[in-house]
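Morning - adenosine-5'-diphosphate inputs below, output right after.
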Amino acid sequence: TSEKETLGFQTEVKQLLNLMIHSLYSNKEIFLRELVSNASDAADKLRFLALENGDLYEGDAELKVRISADKDKGTVTIADNGIGMTRDEVISALGTIAKSGTAEFFKNLTGDQAKDSQLIGQFGVGFYSAFIVADKVTVRTRKAGETHAIEWESKGEGDYTLAEIEKDSRGTEIILHLRDDEKEFLDDFRLRGIVNKYSDHIAIPVEMYREPVPETEGPDGEKIEAQPGHWEVINKAEALWTRDKSEISDEEYQEFYKHVGHDWEEPLTWAHNKVEGKTEYTSLLYIPKRAPFDMYNRERQSGLKLYVQRVFIMDDAEQFMPSYLRFVKGLLDSNDLPLNVSREILQDNKITQTIRKGCTSRVLKMLDRMGKNKPEEYQTFWDEFGSVIKEGPAEDMANKEAIAKLLRFASTHTDEATQNVSLEQYIERMSEGQDKIYYVVADSFEAAKNSPHLEIFRKKGIEVLLLSDRVDEWMMSHLTEFQDKQFQSITRGDLDLGDLDDEESKKAQEESEKEVEGLLERIKTALGDKVKEVRFTHRLTESPACVVADEHDMSSQMIKLMESVGQ
Ligand code: ADP
Ligand code: MG
């Protein structure tokens, strides 16, 4: 054993620890779920590396996790024989938060505990949740194939210590020195209860020690045999997605989501499918309840967990989901991909393409179904992820119509900012003679709602979609029609209301047009180069004038968007 060395936590770790201890107090038993989940991930990672190098098993290929309590010492230990960590890995995994954008995220904390504790959900709780119940945590770990082992220890305040230790067994041991008022977790029965509740779906065995029972006599004097002490498997220890759908409860799906999704909230919905035929795979896809804090960060990792014939291959396989569905979490288990598949191989691969197509349409169908059957849940979804879905029409031509069905808009029907009008609803409400879907794009909802271009539509009672998200202009430039109805911006070109204009008003318009002929010329001379053209319009009923873009010119919002990305 070497000298102890003291290192400081990254600032964000301190903030996270503080937040966690105070905000998850009422939910403290989840620490065990998080640690068992990590042990299971560590087993997955070892099994993957051992595909290439069986020596890593060191003669012990039965991967498992063991939970034990020591009443005298007041400790609970979670020990696995998974991949383990090197010294450097310990420092980065247990001393920093590696996610990009973390610093900015923590800048947004308000200091108001109730508000901030909401934010922790977006972050995932993970290893540090150990400090909810422990005032000191010791981690002893040896990486598979290495001889050096390392001990990490911390009170969850500003720093931690590191020391080299002797450790024969491969893997990681987490020792929780329970706080005085958390001794309930020493109780065997309590621990088993938590594992049953949260970790039943974990695919490796979770074991607890059964104390020896001495030989006794039954009520009729018969002999009941002694039981030696032994490790007992207390979970199902079966990969959840391989089981039959009908045998899996909603609770099991939800707990499993927290494990694969590294989330601590329940998912909104999920789809579990076994696909048979030329390409065989199982997919289990979840829609989270909340957008991650870094959804727009380009470096953010996203994608599915990939398994090949039940063997974990990689996290964040982004090849199976288009970018506009990057919030989908879950896993994919392929029977056809080779076990030695790499990201490079996945890139240009027919099987990948087939699975991606299948998964994409699963997700679109699942969302469509939610939109129809559970509008309230769908609204939650839309409010969180709508702006990402709006990237869809540009990215995925083949599914344009299916994506358009998922879109929700604010509209003059309610004049409220909430985006809750679907195109199908819009079409149902269309006036007689109307053959276009009218919309206006502006910089803000208020600006859209008060656009002078709307006047004639309001007067005639024609619904107009009110768009004001940053991506809206971009999206509309890729959406040309829906169910054979053209989209028409009401601020563009020479708006022709077609059949919606009646004969009488057309005549009146022509007459008033003659009256102002001279005026148009004078305005044009006054504005000079600033405008392309000054035109008479029938669109306005109250405002005297408005600015319009030509049919094929960039709109003012598009110009701003291009400027903001440095074009
Ligand atoms: P996450 O599981 O979402 O990555 P955690 O906070 O739970 O986040 O864990 C942080 C990291 O610590 C893990 O990504 C892993 O690298 C490492 N780690 C934690 N527990 C173990 C373990 N039992 N064996 C090996 N590595 C572990
Ligand atoms: Mg974890």
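Note: Residues 34 and 456 are 59 Å apart (CA to CA).

O.
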